[in-house]
Specification:
This protein is mainly α and 322 residues long. It folds into four domains: 73 residues; 39 residues; 88 residues; 111 residues, no CATH class. The chain is built from 15 helices and no strands. Helix 1 runs parallel beside helix 4 and helix 13 packs antiparallel against helix 14. The N terminus is likely disordered.
């Protein structure tokens, strides 16, 4: 680089020349793509021996950067490309908290790519679930961005499989020494994986039919859903979603129980309902919701619970202060 060239002009020059050489027949064509009329304005930035280049405007530099990225895309996968871009931006602030956070994120991703600890391995499965389930059910029917129904169905199946694989990793780890590191975290993560598994197996992609209630109940019962939610209340006593989902599962399973024991049924319903009201007494009103989930009145899965409350009002009689 000539000493007469500024750093900013040099950075734009090394991108202008390849753009012109490989993608545009003339400088006029390149200027038009960059929103610059004609070749003359670009001549101020192209440089020549012993001639100072004009410093580019922030807008022109941004346009050149964007066009260069479009025409010469990074070979990295999209998510790695975005992380690299974030690091590049953060490197402009040496010693900053932002830079540290991006560095730590990359270090964590690298460690998780070949996880040595069960918690990392199971956590990666959870992240995979989050992405795949979102693609499957939160796509807004946008085929151009999220793929078509075959992709969504495959994503939903993969989301469920990822959760099951994560739970298998945790189960294997917990079979080891009683003093295993991260035991508390592993047990808590297992609850989260199971909680999301219940959500996932009850999900469907847009415009597909929801799962058959009887088959869903059979699946939940085969995986010991109700005992698992009872145990989860103690493992995650601070998480209201466990109580809400436990009530939903208890309602669905007891509704489909061909050997229904009403006393046991009502005890389960009261257990989860009272815990739910511990978190938010607003649930005493069946039309209440804290957001994120339907109200008790609007949740189809809680129809049996509502029926039992009408027949046995003591279910909603809280035995302790809330």
């Amino acid at each position: 680089m000539s000493r007469s060239q500024s750093k900013g002009s040099a950075m734009i020059l090394v991108k202008l020349n390849p753009l012109r050489k490989f993608h545009f027949e003339t400088w006029d064509d390149l200027g038009e793509a960059l929103g610059v009329a004609g070749a003359r304005p670009l001549a101020n930035h192209r440089g020549a021996p012993r001639r100072r280049c004009k410093k580019p405007s922030a807008a022109l530099k941004a346009n050149v950067d964007a066009l260069f990225e479009q025409k010469f895309p990074s070979p990295l996968p999209p998510y790695q490309r975005r992380i690299r871009q974030r690091l590049t931006a953060a490197k402009r602030e040496p010693g900053s908290t932002l830079l540290l956070e991006v560095v730590q994120e990359i270090e964590g991703i690298v460690a998780d790519a070949a996880p040595r600890q069960p918690l990392n391995a199971a956590g990666m499965k959870y992240l995979e679930y989050l992405a795949q389930h979102a693609r499957a059910v939160l796509n807004g029917k946008d085929y151009s961005k999220f793929g078509g129904k075959s992709v969504w169905r495959a994503s939903l199946a993969r989301a469920i499989a990822a959760l099951e694989e994560g739970r298998a990793i945790i189960a294997h780890a917990l079979e080891g020494p009683a003093n295993i590191s991260d035991m508390k975290e592993l047990k808590e993560l297992d609850v989260w994986l199971f909680l999301n598994w219940v959500v996932a197996v009850g999900s469907h992609v847009p415009d597909d039919q929801p799962p058959d209630p009887a088959k869903l109940a059979e699946t939940l019962r085969a995986h010991n859903a109700l005992p698992s939610f009872r145990a989860a209340l103690e493992i995650l006593p601070y998480e209201w979603r466990v109580a809400y989902s436990g009530l939903d599962v208890a309602s669905r399973l007891h509704e489909c129980d061909t050997h229904l024991q009403l006393d046991e049924c009502d005890r389960d319903l009261q257990l989860f309902y009272s815990r739910l009201c511990d978190f938010d007494i607003g649930f005493a009103d069946f039309t209440h919701t804290p957001g994120e989930v339907p109200s008790i009145a609007d949740n189809p899965g809680l129809e049996f619970f509502r029926q039992r409350c009408r027949l046995n009002p003591t279910i909603t009689t809280l035995s302790h202060e809330v």
